[in-house]
Amino acid sequence: MDSPFSMKSPTRSDQELMRKSASPRELSQNLAWNRREFLRTAAGVTLGASISPAGSVFRAPAFPKDKKVVVITFGGGARDQETFAPEGQENIPHLMRELIPQASFFTQVVNKGILGHYVATASLATGVYETFNNFAATPPESPTVFEYFRKDLKRPASDAWVVAPSNGFNRIGESSHRLYGPGLGARVILPKHLLTAATSGEKDYEHLLRDNYETPLYAPELSGNNFEMKQLAELLQLSMGEFKNHALTLSSPDELSIYIARQLMRQVAPSLLWITLHDIDIAHAGAYSLYVDGIRRTDRLCAEIWKTIESEPEYAGKTSLFILPDFGRDSDEDSGGNGFQHHRTGDALSRTTWMMALGPGIRQNVVYDRAMQSTDLVPTIGAKMGFSPILCQGQPIQEIL
Ligand SMILES: [Zn+2]
Any idea which fold 21-48+68-344+355-400 has? Predict the structure, then answer.
């Protein structure tokens, strides 16, 4: 067999053949190779070593002491044909031209868990594949990254925050684990809940308030550590009027989330900030153009957060940024799948996503295609910030430590 390094991007009929005969593991590997080739030819990125052992010659300068981590996940990943493949790259100009050249990029992040957004995002945040009902207002069972961070490093509640895309995420900041849990979690901001409270159903804001795209009628009870409008307005030094007026200028729920996240970075500057976006998942409604709009917006908003990191003195030069989808979407070929619209089949395409990492001590402009798992994020953040996620299943990503 040819070395993977000489592999050309396969044609569509090659891909179909491959899908028919390959195991899920081979399909994931093929996806990762294709992704790497797309990036290599478009952005001229260096190929990373398949595995770069800890302490290798590539070890970068030490991370500064007062380090911070920002994580952006998005619910409802996108397929390569709308993103990294040649025909999709026009949808992600900021990732391609601004972020990837500064990032270590991992082309094969496999999610072996449940493909529902809340449970999958909770799994990203615990480093354990959580198994609870995706549509239930329940906390994660394993400790979250926020609890490890706060307990091990003795950090106050104000130092770990989540900006979550829908009311269904309101318990994500704190697990039910008996060794962690109550009082040790992150504060969770639910921008749509705040806007609802601020506007009490005024019609002008409806475009920002749609809560989730899969089960529009699901309306979880709100309880837990989420923030109320008045507290938030004080904290972010925003008046209710300002908040409403600004919201009116925004075109989507994710714009609202990023607006709040940036205010939070300026006013509170938490060391650990987790932002989950969700606009791409409008794909469930079946409108391809809205799905592509969501991809383009997500691309721009990710770059805005990186710009904020680079320009805010509290973050510049000491912050790692991790960007990753929770999982992918179905392929067009599978029976039972619906292409871009859903993520139901659990095939390799819907499970094989990617991650990029940027920041001090992280190599720039390199691509790694070895298989890693969604659960590797938490131990990597732990190794970066100096805490021990002892109950997580994943492994730290040595290439970026
Ligand atoms: Zn979805």
Answer: Alkaline Phosphatase, subunit A (3.40.720)
128 CA distance to ligand 1 centroid (A)? 20
Q: How far is the CA of 387 from the centre of ligand 1 (A)?
A: 32
CA 102 to ligand 1 centroid distance, Å: 29
Ligand 1 centre from 76 Cα, in Å? 5
- Expressed in angstroms and rounded, the spacing between residue 238 Cα and the centre of ligand 1 is 32
Residues that place a CB less than 5 A from ion ligand 1: 76, 281
H or E stretch covering 14:
helix 12-21
Q: Report how far ligand 1's centroid is from the alpha carbon of 368 (Å).
A: 27
pTM for the full model? 0.91
Query: d(Cα 297, Cα 22) in Å, to the nearest integer?
Result: 34
Instruction: Report the C-alpha gap between 100 and 95 in whole angstroms.
Output: 6
Structure-token pair, residue 122? 């909770």
Closest CA to 370 of 28, 131, 91: 28
Question: Residues 355, 103: contact at Cβ < 8 Å?
Answer: no
For residue 2, CA distances in Å to 5, 6, 7, 8, 129 come to 8, 7, 7, 10, 35
Per-residue model confidence as pLDDT tens digits over 16-58: 555 667 898 999 999 999 999 999 888 777 777 554 444 444 4
Of residues 41, 124, 118, 163, the one with CA closest to residue 392: 124
Give the tens place of pLDDT for each residue, 212-239.
Answer: 787 766 666 665 455 676 777 778 877 7
Give residue 119 CA to ligand 1 midpoint distance, Å.
Answer: 12
As a whole number of Å, the end-to-end CA separation of the chain is 32
| Token pair belonging to 243 | 């908040």
User: What is the spatial distance between Cα 63 and Cα 56, in angstroms, rounded to a whole number?
Assistant: 16
Angle of helix 12-21 relative to helix 24-43, nearest 10 degrees?
A: 160
Distance 348 CA to ligand 1 centre (A): 16
Ligand 1 center from residue 77 Cα (angstroms): 8
Query: Per-residue DSSP letters for 273-291?
Result: EEEEE-GGGGGGGT-HHHH
For residue 343, the CA-to-ligand 1 centroid distance in Å is 6
